[in-house]
Amino acid sequence: MYKGKFLSAVITAAGSGTRMGLEINKPYLEIGSKKILELSLTTVTSIEEFDEIILVIREEDFSLATEILSLFRDPRIKMVAGGASREESTYNGLIALNPDSDLVLSHDGVRPFASRGLFLRVLKEMETYKAAISATKSKDTVKVANENGEVEFTPNREFVYNIQTPQGFDTRLIKSLYKKYFESEAKITDDSQLFEFFDRDEPVKIVEGEYSNIKMTTTEDIIFAKAFIKGER
C-alpha cells in the first residue's frame, strides 16, 4: 500500500532480441553475474509498498523467467503472457491487476539500472497527479526532419526530454485510455502518449530521471551496461 492506496507494478519483458541479432531474449542476457531481468526485479521487489508485481513475458520464455523468479520467492509476483506488440503486452499486464488497484507503475524490464529512488520519486508525484513519468533533459540538440530527412525545425532544448520508465498512472484511468487506444488508429511509443491523444486535460508530470537508466536495445547498450556494473564494484 502507498498512502492507503493499493499499489501495483507492471514489468514488461515480452520483447525479443532481434535488433541485436540475438538467439536469446534480452531480459535473459547476463551482465556481470546477473541477468538483466534479475537486476530489474531486484530493485522492484525491494520496494515494500508494491502490493503486486505483474511480470509480462513471452510464453516461450516462461521457463527462463521461472528460473529467475525462483531466486526471489516473492509471492507478490505473477507472470502473464505478452501480446503481439508492446502496447498489447502492457495492456495484458493492466488487465491482470487486482481489481482493487489504485495506482500502477509500469517499467521496462530491460532497464536494469533504474534506482529505487527513481521509483519513489515517481510515486511521490502520484500523490498530486494521475500520471507521472521519469525523463532526462536532452543533452543533445534535437532536429525534427521531414520524410526526406531534411531538417524542418529545431525545438528549444530547454523543453526537450528523453522519456524513460518507470511511469506512474491512476490504474482505472490508464486502463480506460488503453481501451480507447485499441478502438482508434493512433500509434504510441510510450504509455504516457495516451494522454496526448485521449485526455489532454489531464497533466502528465515529468519526474527527474537518471542518465544511467538506459534501455537495453543495442549491442552498444550491453557494452555500456557491463562497464557500468564494473564501475559500481
Automatic annotation (TrEMBL):
Q: What InterPro entries does the database record attribute to this sequence? A: IspD (IPR001228), IspD/TarI (IPR034683), IspD/TarI_cytidylyltransf_bact (IPR050088), Nucleotide-diphossugar_trans (IPR029044)
Q: Which domain of life is it from?
A: Bacteria
Q: Which GO terms describe its molecular function?
A: 2-C-methyl-D-erythritol 4-phosphate cytidylyltransferase activity
Q: What catalytic reaction does the record list?
A: 2-C-methyl-D-erythritol 4-phosphate + CTP + H(+) = 4-CDP-2-C-methyl-D-erythritol + diphosphate
Q: Name one GO biological process term.
A: isopentenyl diphosphate biosynthetic process, methylerythritol 4-phosphate pathway
**Marked site: Transition state stabilizer:** 19, 26
Q: In which pathway does it act?
A: Isoprenoid biosynthesis; isopentenyl diphosphate biosynthesis via DXP pathway; isopentenyl diphosphate from 1-deoxy-D-xylulose 5-phosphate: step 2/6
Q: Which Enzyme Commission numbers does its entry carry?
A: 2.7.7.60
Q: What does this protein do?
A: Catalyzes the formation of 4-diphosphocytidyl-2-C-methyl-D-erythritol from CTP and 2-C-methyl-D-erythritol 4-phosphate (MEP).
NCBIfam families, per the entry: ispD
Query: What is the official name of this protein in its record?
Result: 2-C-methyl-D-erythritol 4-phosphate cytidylyltransferase
* Organism of this sequence: Anaerococcus lactolyticus S7-1-13
